[in-house]
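Wed. Picked up where I left off yesterday with XRE family transcriptional regulator. The coffee machine is broken again, so keeping this brief.
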Amino acid sequence: MRHGTQHADLATDELETALRGGPFHVALRTAIAARGLPLQRVQHHLSRYGVKVGVTSLSYWQQGARRPQRPESLRAVRALEEILQLPDESLIRLLATADEQPGADRPGSRSYRSLVEASGVLERLFAELGSPLDGGLHTLGHHERVRIGAHRELLGRDSHHIVRAHKDGVDRYVAVHHGDPGCAPERMAVRALENCRTGRVRRHPETGVLVAELLFDTRLRSGDTFLFRYGFDDGTAGPSSEYVRGFGFPGGQYALQVRFDEAALPVRCHRFTQHSAAAPRSGRQELSLSGQHRSVHLVEPRVRSGIVGIGWDWE
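Structure written out below (tokens, as returned):
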């Protein structure tokens, strides 16, 4: 009996250590072992919370081969904290600290925690608008132009979007703008520029998220293509140091152009990619700022799930 008590104490100590220092996959693996639950039982418990995660995904998570990224996966992590009788935010916190690497605290950068919080907010806002996350549309092409102002702030961005409906009756697109830290969504504006008009708008000041319905003049049938343009005016936060675009679904071509005011030019620019918000950045490539147009750009011929972005240094 005493041997069993010592074993339980050791398991508890290991779990507390793992939850304190991480990394995430070690803490998850230790917590599952401490509760004595096979992965099939963990999956069953998750399903009772209305969350669907495969046993293979759970195995990858506890091995460190993959990290939770999608909104559904992040909901699973919060459910796991309850199922495994862990303190609130204990696993989510480890996902957040995993991305706090050198450079993560640069002005205008977004922490993993902010992205986690924003993903949950987006789900709620999309639900309020009665829209699925993909909106019944596949992106064939997306050209995004970002404007950086004289005070180094994110002034706004314009999007030229080409989509194809994959179901009948689609008549709108829900656009998302995620401002830099310290932004004020209530002072942002949405602009419907071509082949659309502005519908309902929802804002979430705590995470800097704004979502807006862009209403089409027609109902698309499955297979129909549609082209429209829209923009967001921001300029409500401090200095910006990067612009990132996340893709939950694979798609067509994506082009990102960042243009700087002549009164505030960065000393260097680079592009980067990430498999997920929790993964390390890779694919870094220096970009040359064009003299006359004061801009840099990247082109992804075919988008995959993940993140691409452009970062810059002021001095």
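Quick read: The two ends are 64 Å apart (CA to CA).
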